[in-house]
Amino acid sequence: MEDLIQGIYTAVVNGNASGVKQKIQAALDNGVPVEELLNKGLIAAMKEVGQLFEEGEYFVPEMLISARAMQSGMVILRPILVEQDIKPIGKVVIGTVKGDLHDIGKNLVSMMLEGAGFQIVDLGTDVAPEKFLEAINTHQPDIVGMSALLTTTMTNIEKTLRYFEENEVRNGFKVIIGGAPVTQKYADEIGADGFAPDASQAAVVSKHLMGVA
Amino acid sequence: MTRFLCIACEVFARPIYLSAAFSTHVVDVELIQRGLHNQPDKLQAGIQDHIDHAEGRGYQAILLGYGLCGNGTAGLHARSIKLVLPRLHDCIALLLGDPLRYQEQFDQNPGTYWYSQDFLERTDDINTFTTMGPISDTELAKKYEVFLEKYGKENADYLMEVMGAWQTHYKRAAFIDMGLANVDKSKKRVQLGAKHRGWMFETLVGDLVLFRQLLNGEWSQNDASNFIVVPPNHSVGLTYDECIFRCDPL
To answer: Among B38, B39, B71, B246, which would you mutate to test the A interface (most chain A Cβ atoms within 10 Å of its Cβ)?
Structure first.
């Protein structure tokens, strides 16, 4: 059993999507519990990928292909997780703010968060405050993630936050922000709960906000 | 006689040289290469280096031909001279002559890639610019080879798809004509590129007003003006709102 899980772990770290699919199927056929596959296989592997990125061993392309490999495994596991009522560690509503069409970074953050055990509701790009609010009311997330690539659109992060306050939903979740021009200083000034300079840190910060190590 | 030093991005070469020539003051011009635009940290260090060299050379002010530029101008400072810069996000607002005009354009067409004659001419490899966007097709093809070798075909294809995804969000190529020289060649290149990507093409007429005001010394200490004047021993700070800049004491 450990061998099967180790195989999944290695395939994710190496960015081998078809390998992950095969090995997950084989492990399920051999009766390995789905929770084990998720935690010790996919999530542990993505944690390693995050660490390799922090250490400068991995760069964005490696992170992307590992995340894709992880996702190919999640496609198989997701319906089983739902069936067995295994809950994610938290739910995240994420999107780039109004006017911003750049989503490579946001997509990578989504994948890293998924790889850390979160459930993701991705609203895409150019998301108006009203659309965020609608998703918050529908999905009741633990975390709302917002990003902007341009300084022209970055100010819409604050506007969206204020909109949450005006609509009295702000206390129901934590807010994490990021994107090229975004800084910790900006996050502090506008009252966001978390800031991450890259996708790997986004997973670390989000887990921290959830009180998970 | 008032002497100014104008440190500007080379994408403003023609507007800056022209405005310096017509200025009522003596303006020396130093241009910095535009490649730094993609690396705000390096941009900051590059401009700061020019400012440091200008101290004690008898200038009454250093005029910066930059906007916020991805936070690349945040933290700039001088010890003995004031710094002046326009309250703008980037070069497009300066070329259009009005931040509100830029905002209108942005609201109507956020997926716009902007071009100007100097922008197109000031590149390390002019031939790669027959295609458009942050990564040229030649560069992308080179990257593909590397990815293919390192990660195999399936992953290489995936990485290309991810890296090329920005194009699907862009719909328009806008060429800003400053009216300073014949732009036919530059315009044609953008038109061809737009056609290649299936984008709409549009020409907008630029406005030199902000260049003229900056180089003529028509900036006030008033915070509501188009410019911010940063006194000596202060740095360029950020307000994170429409004022964009503020002065922070060093």
So the answer is: B71
Higher pLDDT: B121 or B8? It is: B8
Give the pair of three-digit tokens for residue B216.
């003529």
pLDDT (average), residues A154-180: 96
> Which CATH superfamily hosts domain A90-209?
Cobalamin-binding domain (3.40.50.280)
**Is the predicted pLDDT of residue B203 greater than 50, yes or no?**
yes
CATH classification for the domain delimited by A2-83, as one of 3.10.20.30, 1.10.1240.10, 3.40.640.10, 3.10.450.50: 1.10.1240.10
DSSP string over B11-60: GGHHHHHHHHHH-SSEEEEEEE-GGGGG-HHHHHHHHHHHHHHHTTSS-S
| Residue from B2, B8, B18 nearest B63 by CA | B8
Task: Decide if A101 contacts A129 (C-beta within 8 A).
Answer: no
Predicted pLDDT of residue B35: 66
The rounded Cα B180 to chain-centroid distance in angstroms is 18
Q: How far is Cα A35 from Cα A80, in angstroms, rounded to an integer? A: 10
Locate the chain B residue with the closest alpha carbon to A125.
Answer: B169
The pLDDT tens digits of the residues spanning A182-202 come to: 999 999 999 999 999 999 999
Write down the ipTM of this complex: 0.85
| Domain map (residue ranges) of chain A | 2-83, 90-209
Cβ <8 Å between B70 and A181: yes
Shortest CA gap B196–chain A (Å): 21
In angstroms, the first-to-last Cα distance of chain B is 29
Q: How far apart are CA A90 and CA A124, in angstroms?
A: 19
Kindly list the residues from chain B whose CB atom is less than 8 angstroms away from the CB atom of residue A190. 240
Q: What is the pLDDT of residues A73-101, one digit of tens each?
A: 999 999 999 999 999 999 999 999 999 98
Q: Is A17 exposed, middle or buried (0-12, 13-18, 19+ CB in 10 A)?
A: buried
- Which among A64, A125, A154 is the nearest to B159, CB-wise? A64
Please compute Rg for chain B using Cα positions: 20
**DSSP classification of residue B74:** T
pLDDT value for B130: 40
> Could you tell me if A183 lies within 8 Å of chain B, comparing CB atoms?
yes
Residues of B in contact with A186 (CB under 8 A): 238, 240
